[in-house]
Specification:
Blueprint (H helix, E strand, L loop, with lengths): L1 H17 L1 E7 L3 H17 L3 E7 L3 H14 L5 E4 L1 H9 L7 H4 L8 H6 L2 H5 L2 E2 L2 E2 L2 E13 H7 L7 H11 L14 E4 L2 H11 L4 E4 L2 E4 L4 H15 L3 E4 L4 H5 L5 E5 L3 H8 L5 E5 L8 E10 L5 H14 L2 H11 L12 H9 L13 E2 L7 H16 L5 H20 L2
Parallel strand pairs: 1-2, 1-3, 7-10, 13-14
Antiparallel strand pairs: 3-13, 4-5, 6-11, 6-12, 6-13, 8-9
Helix pairs in contact: 2-15, 10-11, 17-18
Length: about 425
């Protein structure tokens, strides 16, 4: 009996040693982290020869810093979450593994139909030219959150255009006690680059544009001026409340009747409005276009891993974007599934049947646009965010704000292209 136990221990030890380890750095905390760990655990059970270790590094800022430091030190994980501008910087460092050989592998890859099953904007966001450097992971879309009870009480239709949004905000703005101070604003917004970029994209403008395969500044444009003028008019007319922080709290307090944010904020809205009023969401109102940016990260692989580790990591990445798993991830986190076929899975259909809000954001997915895939995008976003905030807060006039931002953007682009 003793010999059998010893032999069994030896066999188990050999099996444990034969496992290929995949280290996965991520920034998913709280409930999102718990769901991710459940997915990792299931994958590990289904693949006894692979062990994925999900390592929570901290928030996105911490993850970004750790990845850049690890790239310098030669201590990268096998795979990691990354925004496309992080990926661009890491590509420049020569440490990101192209995935074409895995995607196109006849045995372990994806068929053409499976690859194209990934929603096109998400798929293209993972590619630099013809080279695939990532697979999409936690993606969210922007929607219009609104107080459904208030809309019904005022007899206001949910706005489908920017003009209708302005009019709905005007009707629902109230000074209840007549003291000259607004108690209820029809609309709320954050003085961030995200809100500005949403409106700029809807207006048909962009922060950057491509000329001869290079990104150039496009902030000094008529579209930028029209967006700034529109938002300033809402503020000056007293129908829009603004702040730098998140708006779920003031929405729950019924200080604002509607605002634009990502679907990832749903749990916070549900918490802030519970027992107070009925809320809902709708597609973002259109302007000149119906295009809106999407948010979220991808998963990238590093070429510092061994070939065995890369193949194991690819199996996990492929598992993450499988229809059932991406549907499960979306249902349990509030993000969107990254593949169209996920909408045909039984788990998604059952969830959508009991929660009609789930599929509303997806009406925008084919019109979604993604950020420029350049290393200095974070710095450029900061410049534009400061431009928007300073103008709305009256710290600078429109022309000075635009010209200053344009000059700073051009300096960062020179840095990007080594000019």
């Amino acid at each position: 009996m003793k010999k059998v136990l010893v032999l069994l221990m030896v066999v188990l030890s050999v099996l444990a040693l034969s496992k290929v380890k995949v280290t996965f750095w991520h920034a998913m905390g709280g409930g999102h982290g718990k769901t991710l760990q459940e997915i990792v655990n299931t994958f590990n059970e289904l693949h006894p020869d692979i062990e994925v270790e999900a390592v929570y590094v901290g928030n996105y800022g911490a993850l970004s810093q750790k990845l850049l430091a690890a790239a310098q030190a030669g201590e990268l994980p096998t795979i990691a979450q990354a925004y496309s501008n992080w990926t661009a910087k890491l590509i420049q460092s020569g440490v990101v593994q192209p995935l074409n050989e895995f995607v196109n592998d006849p045995k372990i890859g994806l068929t053409k139909e499976e690859w194209e099953d990934i929603f096109e904007p998400l798929r293209k966001n993972c590619m630099w030219g013809d080279t695939i450097y990532a697979v999409p992971f936690n993606k969210s879309l922007y929607v219009l959150y609104y107080n459904a009870d208030a809309f019904a009480m005022y007899g206001v239709d949910v706005p489908k255009t920017i003009d209708e949004l302005y009019e709905a905000a005007r009707i629902m703005t109230e000074d209840f006690d007549g003291d000259g101070k607004i108690d209820q604003y029809g609309f709320g917004f954050r003085t961030t680059v995200d809100f500005f970029q949403i409106l700029l994209t809807l207006r048909g403008g962009s922060i950057l544009k491509q000329v001869d395969r290079k990104w150039v500044s496009n902030i000094d444009s008529q579209e930028t001026r029209e967006v700034l003028a529109f938002v300033k008019k809402m503020v000056d007319d007293g129908i829009a409340y603004y702040q730098g922080g998140y708006l779920d709290g003031v929405f729950g307090q019924q200080k604002i009747m509607m605002y634009i944010s990502t679907i990832a904020g749903r749990p916070y809205v549900e918490q802030s409005t519970k027992g107070k009023f009925t809320w809902s969401w709708a597609p973002v109102p259109t302007w000149v276009t119906n295009k809106v940016p999407f948010a979220g990260t991808d998963i990238i692989m590093f070429n510092t891993a061994s070939e065995e580790e890369k193949r194991a990591a690819w199996e996990f990445m492929k598992y993450l974007i499988s229809p059932e798993v991406t549907a499960y991830w979306a249902i349990n986190t509030g993000y969107i599934p990254v593949r169209r076929s996920a909408l045909e899975t039984s788990i998604w259909k059952e969830a959508a049947k009991s929660d009609p809000l789930l599929e509303i954001p997806l009406s925008q997915i084919d019109n979604a646009v993604f950020d420029p895939q350049i290393g200095v995008w974070y710095e450029i976003r900061t410049v534009v965010g400061n431009m928007f905030s300073d103008f709305i807060n009256g710290k600078v006039d429109m022309e000075t704000a635009i010209k200053t931002a344009d000059q700073k953007i051009k300096e960062y682009l020179k840095e990007e292209y080594g000019e």
